[in-house]
Amino acid sequence: MTAVITLRDVRKSYVAGVPVLQGVDLDVRAGEVTALVGANGSGKSTLVKILSGYHEPDPGSEVRFGERSMEGRIHPGQARAAGVRFVHQDTRMVAGMSVLENLLAERLATGSLRRLDWPAERRRAQAFLDEHGIGVDVRADAGSLSLADAAKISIARAAGPESDPSLRALILDEPTAALGREDAGSMLGWVRDLARGRNVGVLLIGHRLEEILATADRVAVLRSGRIVADTPVTELDHDRLVEQIVGRAIESYYPDRAEEGSAADAAPVLVVESLRGGAVRDLSFTVAAGEILGVTGLPGSGFEDVPYLLMDPRLGARGALTVAGRPISPGATPVRARVQAGLALVPADRKRRALATTVSVRANVAIPHLRRFRSWGRLSARAEQRLASGVVRDYAVSPANPDVTAGNLSGGNQQKVVIGKWMSTRPRVLVVHEPTQAVDIGAKAEIFRLLAYAAADGMAAVVVSVEYEDLAHLCDRVLVVGDGRVVAELAGDELDPESLATAAYRSGASGLPELAHLR
Amino acid sequence: GAQSQADSGSTGSVPAEVTASVTAHRGPVQASYTGSAFDVSGLRGKRVWWVTQYAGNPFLASIGRNLTEALGSVGVEVTTCDGKGNPVDAGACIRQGIAQHADAIQVDGPEPTTYGESLAAAAKAGIPVLSGAAVDVTTTPLFSGLAGQTSQPFGLTGELAADWIVQDSGGKADVLFLTAPDVVGSVSEQKAFAARLDRTCPDCSLSVKGVTLANWANDLGPTTSSELVKNPRITYVVPAFDPMTQFTDPAILQAGRNDVKVVTVNGNLPFLQELRKGSPIKAMVGIDLDALAYLEADQLLRAMAGQPTLTKVVAPVRIFDKTNVGDLKLDGKAADDGSWYAGSGASADLFARLWKR
Amino acid sequence: MDNSTPLAWRSLGYRYGIVAVWVVEFAVFALLAPDTFPTTANLTSLLSSQAVLLLLALALVPTLVTGEIDLSIAGTMTVTATMTAQLNAVQGLSIWTAVAVGLATAAAVGLVNAFLAVRIGVESIIVTLGMGTLLIGLSVWISDSLTISGVSPALGDLLNTPVLRVNTAFYLAIGVGVAMWFVYRHTVFGRGAVFIGKNAEVARLSGLPVARTKVLSFVATALLAGAAGIVVVGIAGGLQPTSLQTLLLPAFAAAFLGSAIVEPGTSNPVGTMIAVLFLATGISGLVLVGLDAWIRDVFYGAAVVVAVTVSRIAAMAAPSGRA
Amino acid sequence: MDNSTPLAWRSLGYRYGIVAVWVVEFAVFALLAPDTFPTTANLTSLLSSQAVLLLLALALVPTLVTGEIDLSIAGTMTVTATMTAQLNAVQGLSIWTAVAVGLATAAAVGLVNAFLAVRIGVESIIVTLGMGTLLIGLSVWISDSLTISGVSPALGDLLNTPVLRVNTAFYLAIGVGVAMWFVYRHTVFGRGAVFIGKNAEVARLSGLPVARTKVLSFVATALLAGAAGIVVVGIAGGLQPTSLQTLLLPAFAAAFLGSAIVEPGTSNPVGTMIAVLFLATGISGLVLVGLDAWIRDVFYGAAVVVAVTVSRIAAMAAPSGRA
Ligand SMILES: Nc1ncnc2c1ncn2[C@@H]1O[C@H](COP(=O)(O)OP(=O)(O)OP(=O)(O)O)[C@@H](O)[C@H]1O
Ligand SMILES: Nc1ncnc2c1ncn2[C@@H]1O[C@H](COP(=O)(O)OP(=O)(O)OP(=O)(O)O)[C@@H](O)[C@H]1O
Ligand SMILES: [Mg+2]
Ligand SMILES: [Mg+2]
Helix or strand or coil: residue A298? Predict the structure, then answer.
């Protein structure tokens, strides 16, 4: 099989003396799916951004698209001309522009003065989305899309229409991070067929190993800047792959929780009564101290709105909330009062809602703590430094320097910072939305362990996620939301991934996910 | 204020005094001065701080050049400081002058009231401050703290503009006068214009519009054309200062009015050139900037020599129109040496005789 | 929110609401000054006087669209005008050569701005602020601190010729605006520029030529500002270099007001042209009603504040509104 | 990345490089005008005349820090100055009452700006641009289009009293700047404000009082601009209301230049004060060297462009620089 992309001794260091890539050799062959896995910060996205011409590789690196070999910084045009297309890690569609224009982005790249025949483009684009079963109006504001739809559209956009013969290679950096298992499954299945059917070389990056194992033909493992293994999927199983990635075996990903019973009859710290807003029609539940409650459902069922309805008064939710005994009016009480009451939210949309990317990790971590000081009291830089270093250490953020600009961290490390930031406030109730998205297998286990630890310490947690596997293992109870209401509550022995999946699907009227309304 | 159109039907008449005044002021100026001779030998090497309201203003710039020349002739050196159009920088300039122990400070443009406090400081330091080209000194008493003042005769220029129009129109003109309400001189000019018109021309009508300095570029055009539309009988437009014509003249064309005559004041070179070319500018009341500068110099020297200053002296003015603009030598040099008024170098000679070296 | 209704049709209200306000404004003045305001004479002369501000406000659009800002337009306008006037009236070059040199100067300024803002990465609002002041200084130097007059009438004749009683300069400005509307609404380059303005990062990852587009935009802005300067020289036949700085704020007022309408949230040519004429209508009306000069500033300021606020409130109320 | 050394020690170069440039500037003028420029008299008078610009430039910091911008400062300054002067000199109120009313007016302006920009959500650059013009108009109305004179000397005496040959107004301005430095560097409010300026949404979801902070910032900006206005009245003794507009751009030049130093990328008080004095030094020097006026504009503009560009290049070279 011919290699559509050939990498030889590719090196990159953003800062002199701190190599990120230390000589990567990799082939992406036509007609097969090559997976690239590795711990957070191992350099996957960096590699992608070198291929897309966003970053320049260090001299001596060799990159070939088919036969053509690239010199120095790759011009985006060259990549496009060579038929190499990208889906970058957490790049949303651009809000304020129509989906249509977001779809046309690649075309806009030509920058010519050619006329755009809007009505025609619209028809073509609409047909294209329908072709991929994405139920979105192309004239809708892209800012109104759910992360899931956005992800699907960006993959479809990169692949282009069936008719497009120029496509040679497709590079996907954690394309399914925001998708539910089933959406992810179907999307990756489609990617796989695409590789075979159109003889395209696919480079797939991700942290969900079962997806990788199900989709890829070969799995290359990136560790400390080198490819340490490049194995046909047939010779791999989950545990061996994990070992290759983290360099050691992880005996269990999930902490063994204390007896559920004990938590359940503890006093409730979070009481939600008939919460209404967004796609949520009527939701009531309580979470006891030390309890971990899971909330899941199908995209559009409203479950992914729950975290924000709990925290953000702007969404004007109705109903009643009580956090650690303090009554909170969902649509009115300011965020700061909720934080003071002990409520903390880790949003899924990192760049927009969770992390200020232009400032240091330290500043990000310090923010929720500022309120601890008398509002005009002098800040103690030392205390702040101690706090930040603590988080960086406990969550194994790399590089382990609180003064790094947050935006320079890898996706997963950014996620760790966000979780650490909130955990360090020792909240009474922690609401997390997709806590382990983009987080590598080792860190994932670590985050779960810390959640469990905090719970054992009396914190109540609400984990909103589509990761049935994780929910089943981590939570005491899981609520399955359908059409804005609780349709099932599973706990104890009946709580396992399969029954969660079935419950979720029974709830969804049709298999076709609708739009999530609040993003 | 506008006045009644009561007997607008009757044909106007031109009072003799008007004709006389116009003819008198069309002719060349006689360089004359009431000040007595005095000794300036002791002033050689003294330093004068010249604070200009805004260095970008060609009118003031010309005064600056002439002042430097005038004082240079007796060995007094001039330092220029730009007030950048605001009282803060002007104040800073005066302070710097005081700090540098200047022997006198000349402030051209700003009204004395807008730097009253600095005057106190100067007084403490014993440095005389003189005002120029700000308020009409023929009607305004010397502001307390000032050692002297000079200016162009704002009132007179207004009256002469009125006279020319009355005569040109045979005592029957509808006039639009454009002022800059935030430049007090333009208001004095307009008041005098109105009064004169009132007295000499019962059949004339006057409407006044003000456009603040900062809005000239944006509003003078629309304001002019709108007024012309509002009152189509207007055939004379009088911008208080000739730089305004840069914006009014195009507007007059755009209003499709080539019957409108522009009469304005100052006599900056480019607008006299316009006048000669026969643009909408039909008459110009010119101010002898060379003389004005020498008057300032004279006051400064007197102040520095401990002589009493003359507080009502103003620059000579002259009416230019097609009858006499042809005789002028329209170039930069002539613009600065008074050739158009009392003759090239007239002021220099006049004061050379008064300043005993 | 309802995604099934298209961008273009939703929200007509707040996209074109200002036009309604404009009509009201017009009606009010027509009532207050019935036999002067709503006359052809008044309106045609009104339009004829707007060419310069139209061009200057339109000049802001290309940079604003790409998320940059150019505060040096007044300076660029001044230096172009001064160059042209000086070369023709004083140095005696043919007016067309002078115009060409003037525009070349403008383009050069645009390139310098672009180099500093795009290549070096200095914030454009800062670098262009400095550049503006610098250019005024240079203009005064070029003109030798004198007012320039005696520019060849050929230019004036070209720009002042009335067509349907409105001068050609106005049609020129409108023509430019319409061309820009087409570019920014219907061409690849234009939509690309808007895309870059919304999110340069994603645009760059999508392979859009961000740097190139921004450079072109700075040059376009400078050229349009230069064109405005040349229209000034042509219409006035002369120039006092320091007299044009005060056009900076009115131009921004119009451009900002324009960015709140037609395509709210994005600076756009049609909105900008409407804004210029809306404000000019007010000025002219106030003169005819015969109010004090100070009311003009109050109107100008209030118009911007109110119009933008209203369109904002409407936008929030509209189905697509997002906090 | 050299993670061991804290950011603070790295990058001293581009954070305080301007100070070096300042020293050079000083040396040059000391050479060109040895017996006038480097004299106590000159320097003290230089400082004494900077109070207004210092306050006006510092006024910009609070809004710039929170990611907003206030173009109405010149208007606020004017309306406050006019109010105070008119009430005291014309209406005969005691000067201190007049000052109080003036500042109250400023605060009110700030609240209106905040309401429109924060609650309604109009872009602050637009709403304040309009507000500025509106306020100038109002000021002219208040002053009845006349130049106000005869303000009680009590105010002037207070502000002009020399201490170590520099007037109290200067110390006042510096005092304000230092207080602001403490607030933005060492208090919760200040740090919160800075974070809000970097990413308001994250700040909001982290429980920072975003709206309240921004409102306070707008009011602070307005009050400082008002204070500048009162200093003008005090040190001038009279006022011509339309004459203060030309201070808008210099104030922004200083504030922007300041945001490129000391704490690059964030508007900050210390940098702003340094910038004001740096620029003032140049102007003063040029006057003494006796060069043409236009050179001042060129210097002013070039200083901003060069200083910011240099500090930007240095920032990129510095280890913490980002792609
Ligand atoms: N712009 C940048 N400047 C400096 N360092 C950077 C920059 N971008 C990434 N890095 C560093 O390079 C290393 C690799 O980052 P990269 O994003 O490639 O990791 P990754 O493999 O994609 O991790 P993840 O799985 O979490 O996305 C990280 O240590 C990160 O901190
Ligand atoms: N940026 C866009 N994204 C999606 N659809 C668009 C876009 N621009 C135009 N369209 C669609 O294409 C059609 C033709 O575009 P066009 O701009 O001519 O419409 P329009 O009504 O003229 O819009 P406008 O009045 O704002 O110029 C419109 O009906 C609109 O729905
Ligand atoms: Mg990554
Ligand atoms: Mg259209």
Answer: coil
Domain boundaries, chain C: 4-321
Give yes or no for a contact between A164 and A39, defined as CB atoms under 8 angstroms apart. Answer: no
CATH topology of domain D4-321: ABC transporter involved in vitamin B12 uptake, BtuC (1.10.3470)
Please give, one letter per residue, the 3-state secondary structure of D114-127.
Answer: HHHHHHHCCCHHHH
Length of chain D: 323
Which residue does chain D place closest to C292, by CA atoms?
A: D141
Is A139's C-beta closer than 6 angstroms to any atom of ligand 2?
A: yes
Q: For B26, what's the count of Cα atoms within 13 Å in the CB-facing half-sphere?
A: 17
> Is the model more confident about A516 or about A332?
A332
Rounded Cα distance, D138 and D72, in Å: 13
Q: What is the pLDDT of residue D169?
A: 95
Q: Ligand 3 centroid vs A191 CA: distance in angstroms? A: 20
pLDDT of residue A250: 67
Residue C304 CA to ligand 4 centre (angstroms): 24
Confidence tier at C11 by pLDDT (50, 70, 90): low
User: Under 8 Å CB-to-CB from D37, ≥6 apart: which residues?
Assistant: D29, D30, D284, D285, D288, D289
Across the interface, whether the CB atoms of B219 and C296 are under 8 A apart is answered yes
Residues in chain B: 357
Residue window 184-213, chain D: list those with CB within 8 Å of chain A: 186-189, 191-192, 195, 198-199, 201-209
In one letter, which amino acid is C18?
Answer: I
More confident residue, A483 or A233: A233
State the smallest CA–CA distance between residue B80 and chain D in angstroms: 7
State the SS3 of chain C.
CCCCCCCCCCCHHHHHHHHHHHHHHHHHHHHHCCCCCCCHHHHHHHHHCCHHHHHHHHHHHHHHHCCCCCCCHHHHHHHHHHHHHHHHHHCCCCHHHHHHHHHHHHHHHHHHHHHHHHHHCCCHHHHHHHHHHHHHHHHHHHCCCCCECCCCHHHHHHHHCEECCEEHHHHHHHHHHHHHHHHHHHEHHHHHHHHHHHCHHHHHHCCCCHHHHHHHHHHHHHHHHHHHHHHHHHHHCCECHHHCHHHHHHHHHHHHHHHCCCCCCCCCHHHHHHHHHHHHHHHHHHHHHCCCHHHHHHHHHHHHHHHHHHHHHHHHHCCCCCC
Residue A33, both tokens: 């799916």
Chains A, B in contact, 3 or more Cβ pairs below 8 Å: no
Is the link from the previous residue into A399 a cis peptide, with omega within 30 of 0? yes
Cα separation of D282 and D298, whole Å?
A: 11
Centre of ligand 3 from the C-alpha of residue A208, in Å: 13
Ligand 2, atom 19: nearest CA belongs to which residue?
C8
Q: What is the DSSP letter of A484?
A: T
Which residue of C78, C257, C309 to mutate against D (max D Cβ within 10 Å)? Answer: C309
- Tell whether ligand 1 has an atom less than 6 A from the beta carbon of residue A414: no
Question: Which of B249, B255, B332 lies nearest to residue C236, judging by beta carbons?
Answer: B249
Q: Per the CB < 8 Å rule, is A403 touching D205? A: no
List domains and CATH numbers for chain A. Answer: 3-93+145-252 (3.40.50.300), 258-342+427-518 (3.40.50.300)
pLDDT grade for C312, boundaries at 50, 70 and 90: confident
Please identify, by atom number, the ligand 2 atom nearest to the C-alpha of residue A101. Answer: 3
User: Which residues of C, range 225-284, sit inside 8 Å of D by Cβ?
Assistant: 249, 252-253, 256-257, 259-260
Question: According to DSSP H, which parts of chain B are helical?
Answer: 16-26, 58-72, 87-99, 116-125, 154-168, 184-200, 216-230, 245-254, 269-277, 289-305, 322-325, 332-337, 346-354
Does the pLDDT at position C6 exceed 90?
Answer: no
Q: Is A18 helix (H, G, I), strand (E, B) or coil?
A: strand
ipTM of this complex prediction, to 2 decimal places? 0.85
